[in-house]
Amino acid sequence: MKSARSWSENLRMDETEPGPTWRDLPDITKELLTGKLAGLWGAPTDEAAFNSWPLDKKQALLLLMQRMQAKGLWHLVKRVTNVYGEGGVGLEFEAWPMIESTLARRPDFTRRLAGHRNTSGGFYEKQRGAAILHFLFQNGEPRRWYVHFDLYSPIHSPGTAWRHIRHEFLGKVKPDWRMIAESLNA
Predict the structure, then answer these.
(1) Quick one: pLDDT at residue 157?
(2) How confident is the model at residue 11 (pLDDT cuts 50, 70, 90)?
(3) Is the pLDDT confidence value at 40 over 60?
(4) Long-range contacts from 24-31, C-beta under 8 angstroms, 24+ separation
(5) pLDDT tens figures, 91-116
């Protein structure tokens, strides 16, 4: 789902610009977000939550929603509980109970190397070398789920694994929404 501007126009946006508002979003995007944002940071409605965010959070949410929807996974997000777009592009969310079994059954996701320290497990998207989805979870009541984009895949190929280690592990590069948007458009 693209926002009212094209991705290339969004890449040129000044960080001080608030970015799209709820009113600017296509109806299908609003429909996909309805019921998932209200209550976030005290906002009474989905529209109020979205409109209160800076540009990086809006773009991060739209990029993740678009990618997850394309993979047939957005319906597994019950409610968004946090959004980040600088220092990484990701969401923390409450998930519907079938998320783990859904990801485990999919041939385009793997558990291999997907866990992080301080997490209980995770899943990597397998069939892309760049701008890949990385799901993580922490056990508890309720289980906490996260999804973010890794700039390079540690499992796709030796080349992407090396780029992942060099940029994200050794270089401590956390891709922002612009880097992810460029990679998705490449």
Answers:
(1) 79
(2) very low
(3) yes
(4) 25/50, 26/1, 26/2, 28/1, 29/1, 29/3, 29/62, 29/65
(5) 999 999 999 999 999 999 999 887 77
Q: Which domain holds residue 145?
A: 7-185
Would residue 86 count as lying in a domain?
yes
CA trace torsion 175, 184, 167, 73 (10° rounding): 70
| Residue 1 within any structural domain of the chain | no
Q: What is the largest CA-CA distance in the chain?
A: 47
Instruction: Enter the tokens of residue 131.
Output: 């701008």
CA gap 83, 156 in Å, rounded: 26
Each residue's pLDDT tens digit, 123-133 = 999 988 888 99
Q: Please report where in the chains the tokens 């899943």 appear, as a residue.
A: 123
Whether residue 2 lies inside any domain: the answer is no
Q: Could you tell me which residues come within 8 angstroms of residue 111 by beta carbon, excluding any fewer than 6 positions away?
A: 104, 121, 122, 123, 124
Token pair, residue 111, equals 């558990």
Number of structural domains in the chain: 1
